[in-house]
Design a protein that fits this description.
The chain has 181 residues and is an all-alpha fold. The chain contains 9 helices and 2 strands. 38% of the residues are buried.
């Protein structure tokens, strides 16, 4: 009972309609499933790993609430809010990031590169996704505790990382089995 109450309190601010749109057997789930298989990352032990699709669903939720046309004031675009320079670097067409498949593939490619670079460290990779690829190397970071050296001193990035991790747990607990080709 206590665990259920905690779970409810933890996710009470979740926009259920957006979560359903992103998670239920639909277009996004299959796009995510296919993209994570296409772009594995190299873990700290040197093995190829496939990202948990729930991570990408969490990024979609936090970045755009499932709206393909979302655009930030800074210029990040699409479901997964990719910046123009990041799209260019990854060989993605920024102008077509409003197409869910393009946005998801670009985002998975970016997260796979960050996870490889950061040897599988999810917190550091999410910090880089939000704050800039090398943010933890070029900007002051937390000095102590579990986040030391993993997340740079920026309140927005800290909120972002926590939000994505919360939604990652939320989507992992809702595991659906999409029938994807």
């Amino acid at each position: 009972m206590f665990a259920a109450l905690l779970f409810f309190m933890f996710f009470s601010s979740v926009d259920a309609a957006s979560a359903e749109l992103i998670d239920i057997d639909n277009e996004y789930s299959c796009i995510v499933e296919n993209a994570v298989r296409k772009y594995p990352y190299i873990s700290s032990d040197g093995g190829r790993k496939i990202m948990d699709p729930s991570l990408i669903k969490a990024v979609i939720y936090v970045e755009s609430r499932g709206k393909p046309e979302a655009k930030s004031a800074a210029g990040a675009y699409g479901l997964t809010q990719i910046m123009p320079q990041t799209a260019r670097l990854l060989g993605c067409n920024y102008e077509t990031l409003n197409v869910p498949q393009n946005a998801v593939e670009c985002s998975v490619k970016f997260l796979a590169a960050l996870l490889t670079y950061n040897k599988g460290d999810l917190v550091k990779s999410l910090s880089g996704y939000n704050g800039g690829t090398y943010s933890t190397e070029t900007k002051p970071t937390e000095k102590s505790g579990k986040l030391a050296g993993k997340i740079y001193e920026n309140p927005e990035t800290k909120r972002y990382v926590v939000s994505v991790l919360q939604m990652f747990e939320f989507f992992k607990n809702r595991k659906t089995a999409p029938k994807c080709q």
